[in-house]
Design brief:
Elements (H helix, E strand, L loop, with lengths): L6 E5 L10 H8 L5 E7 L1 H12 L7 E7 L2 E7 H7 L7 H16 L6 H14 L2
Parallel strand pairs: 1-2, 2-4
Antiparallel strand pairs: 3-4
Length: 129
């Protein structure tokens, strides 16, 4: 099966999503054939997933779940993104964009460190995050 050139977005929250080029970011970071699902979840859901899969009992801004070599899912708590943006000197939308890149790099198999930071910086510059 060949994935289509789309990003599946599921909203479990209310309110308007920031306007970001989700598909362009996905295509640049993961490639056009990667099947990506993004779930915008509440902090409560984020905390439950963080506890279940990482044994950390607190909500987090983003979780990455690789499903196969060519598919994965990101779970994002917009409330946590909004609360944490100023800590990183970014606007809410810039921080969300940066976290999307961060999560996608995890889906590609990168772990925290200088190599991941190099790619984050390159993509963040490209998209203005």
């Amino acid at each position: 099966m060949v994935a289509s050139d789309t990003v599946s977005i599921t909203r479990m929250t209310k309110g308007k999503l920031p306007s970001l080029p989700f598909l362009r970011i996905k295509n640049d970071v993961l490639g056009k054939t990667y099947d990506l699902s993004i779930v915008f979840a509440t902090p409560k859901v984020s905390q439950a997933l963080n506890k279940q899969f990482r044994d950390k009992d607190y909500p987090t801004n983003i979780l990455s779940f690789p499903l196969s070599k060519t598919s994965g899912e990101l779970v994002i708590s917009l409330a946590k993104v909004r609360a944490g943006a100023s800590e990183f000197g970014k606007s809410y939308t810039q921080f969300l964009g940066f976290l999307l890149i961060h999560g996608m790099l995890h889906l590609k198999g990168y772990e925290h460190g200088s190599t991941m930071e190099k790619y984050e910086a390159r993509f963040a510059k490209k998209f203005g995050f």
